[in-house]
Amino acid sequence: AQSVSQHNHHVILSEAASLELGCNYSYGGTVNLFWYVQYPGQHLQLLLKYFSGDPLVKGIKGFEAEFIKSKFSFNLRKPSVQWSDTAEYFCAAGSSNTGKLIFGQGTTLQVKP
Amino acid sequence: EAEVAQSPRYKITEKSQAVAFWCDPISGHATLYWYRQILGQGPELLVQFQDESVVDDSQLPKDRFSAERLKGVDSTLKIQPAELGDSAMYLCASSFRDGNEKLFFGSGTQLSVL
């Protein structure tokens, strides 16, 4: 069955701390991977995506993610978080054939100033 | 920037009643999705349309839920009858082609079933 699993439900960090959010997927066939973010009071929006090529992808606002095929993982990282990064982060996997996109359960990140 | 429009923003209903949600995707977007998001969880795909055709509705509880996109533009999601467990945020999203592209999400409809 297709599934996306996020390791941490709630993460609390101080500003300038480094961030890594875990994501593992189970998806038959060729899969594309995404991280979406939802800032307080805003819509879900795309942070970054991986389709093929360089397994290290860079997104907006200094975020990056690394695709490790052997581990079925797509972890999100940021070297130094800011208070404005407080949000909910969702990992998602999509079928390259059908475009069906499924989401993980989300990780709430709280950054303390 | 163009947005996905959803209405109503909030809906309170009693169990056994019928409810309907409306979504107008970004103009020109062929793919439309309805997701359900329970508090503390990620969005769960209910139905995916490609133009007016259903691509995936494997997670749609078809005994009570229905969705249509008759002209391949706007879409309606209906629940009849509503149950207490249906209380959730119902999100609509669209993309130009499919989920391998960027999805644009609406603000959602927050449903409370009493």
Structure notes:
The complex is a heterodimer of chains A (113) and B (114). Helices cover 0% and strands 56% of the residues of chain A. Chain A is an all-beta fold and 113 residues long. In chain A, the strands form three sheets. In chain A, strands 2, 5, 6, 10, 11 and 12 form a six-stranded mixed beta sheet that branches. Chain B is mainly β and 114 residues long. Chain B has no helices and eleven strands. In chain B, the strands form two sheets. In chain B, strands 2, 4, 5, 6, 9, 10 and 11 form a seven-stranded mixed beta sheet that branches. Chain B is globular. The termini of chain B are far apart. The model of chain B has no long low-confidence stretch (mean pLDDT 94). The chains are: A mainly beta (113), B mainly beta (114).
Number of strands of chain A: 12
Mean pLDDT of chain B: 94
The largest sheet of chain A, given as strand count, sense and whether it forms a barrel, is: 6 strands, mixed
Structural class of chain A: mainly beta
Tally the helices of chain B: what do you get?
0
Are there runs of chain A of 5+ residues with pLDDT below 50, and where? Answer: none
Q: C-alpha Rg of chain B, in Å?
A: 13 Å
Dominant shape of chain A: globular
Strand content of chain B: over 45%
Pair with the biggest interface? A-B, 24 and 28 residues
Low-confidence stretches of chain B: none
